[in-house]
Design goal:
This protein has one domain: Beta-lactamase, CATH 3.40.710. Helices cover about 40% and strands about 15% of the residues. The chain has helices at about 1-40, 60, 80-85, 115-125, 160-170, 175-185, 195-210, 235-245, 245-255, 325-340; strands at about 90-95, 100-105, 135, 155-160, 255-260, 265-270, 290-295, 300-310, 315-320. Strand 1 (about 90-95) and strand 2 (about 100-105) form a beta hairpin. Helix 4 packs parallel to helix 6 (about 175-185), helix 5 (about 160-170) packs antiparallel against helix 6 and helix 6 packs across helix 7. Residues about 1-5 and about 35-65 have low confidence and may be disordered.
């Protein structure tokens, strides 16, 4: 009996030794792991950011469609702007810093005049290529008699790029109607000219909404005053920023003059209607790179202007409703200068 007890005690002691050894090993491993992590953490006190992948970046950023921030961030002498600008609606934006510098009545609904044509160009290029061949047709009979023209007539055959040159440089309403009708027919070949243009304008409004424009609607492709054809300075900022990210549009609005020969043989020379772009104008502006003029009775004299500097800064100004043609250029120059100050 005593021998049995002896063996039981011996087995118990062995079990305890095994447990103690296991505990000791576990403690030692924990200490080693802790020491390793401590040494590794001591190599850098700042966590290294993980580069974002396409999955980490919102699709709007990838497509450059992110609406601009509409809260002024940089302090400017806004009293000076208010006292020295008569135009009722103004936006000044620093593209390089993605910063709104100044806004006066930015949400006032107004007529957009030919600034409309930026959206006409956007929608055209989203539904056709620059090499797409288009032929002017009976849609030209739908033009307002007071329209500005690029000299396009029924039967003229051209590429979409050539039509866009007439649209964005000469600000031709005839180019706008030819583009809208022909691209509308590409969307639905069974439509009448009027219906094709209406479909195209519907796409213009839809694109504006997609860009975050909450107070913009288009009922024509050229900007002639019409019921329901409206926008705001803040909405035009979003449209202009998007337009300038489209390579062909950016190229055309920054072109002073172009001479082109249509596929049907006619040669046209178009000069940019933006006097800031004209090297022989007293309003010629250093570093100007576009973008668009617009004038109607309801809209007044309007101008979206954009300029750059050698240090990479890029400023965009939107001025709507100036009383005179001269005033829109004078005030736009003052705004751009202030943006670069």
């Amino acid at each position: 009996m005593s021998r049995t007890i002896f063996h039981q005690k011996r087995r118990l002691l062995r079990t305890r030794r095994v447990i103690l050894v296991c505990v000791a090993v576990a403690v030692l491993l924990s200490l080693l792991v802790g020491l390793f992590l401590l040494l590794r953490g001591g190599q850098s006190t700042t966590a290294r950011p993980v580069p974002p992948t396409d999955k980490d970046v919102p699709s709007s950023n990838l497509l450059h469609d992110e609406p601009p921030t509409l809260e002024p961030v940089r302090n400017l002498p806004t009293d000076f702007i208010t006292r020295n600008t008569k135009s009722p609606r103004i936006v000044l934006y620093d593209i390089s810093a993605q910063t709104l510098l100044y806004s006066k009545n930015g949400d006032d609904v107004c007529a957009p005049a030919s600034l409309t044509k930026l959206m006409t160009a956007i929608v055209a290029l989203e539904n056709a290529t620059p090499e797409t061949e288009i032929t002017a047709g009976n849609e030209l009979y739908l033009l307002d008699p007071e329209s500005s023209r690029a000299g396009i007539y029924i039967g003229h055959k051209m590429t979409l790029k050539q039509a866009l040159q007439g649209l964005l440089l000469q600000s031709g309403n005839d180019a706008a109607y030819v583009i809208a009708a022909q691209i509308g027919h590409l969307m639905d070949e069974n439509l009448t000219d009027r219906a094709a243009i209406d479909l195209f304008c519907q796409k213009m409004t839809e694109k504006a909404k997609a860009l975050g424009c909450t107070d913009t609607a288009f009922v024509n492709p050229d900007g002639i005053d019409a019921d329901g054809h409206l926008t705001t300075a803040n909405d035009l900022l979003k449209i202009a920023l998007y337009a300038l990210k489209q390579p062909l549009i950016a190229e055309l609005v920054a072109t002073e003059q172009v001479t082109t020969t249509f596929l049907s043989g006619q040669t046209k020379t178009w000069k940019n209607s933006n006097r800031l772009m004209q090297s022989d104008s007293k309003y010629a502006y250093q570093g100007i790179c576009g973008v668009k003029t617009g004038t109607t009775g309801a809209a007044g004299n309007c101008l979206i202007s954009c300029a750059t500097r050698d240090d990479g800064r890029k400023i965009l100004g939107i001025l709507l409703g100036a009383e005179t043609d001269a005033l829109r250029y004078e005030e736009s120059i003052e705004l751009l200068n202030l943006g670069f100050s």
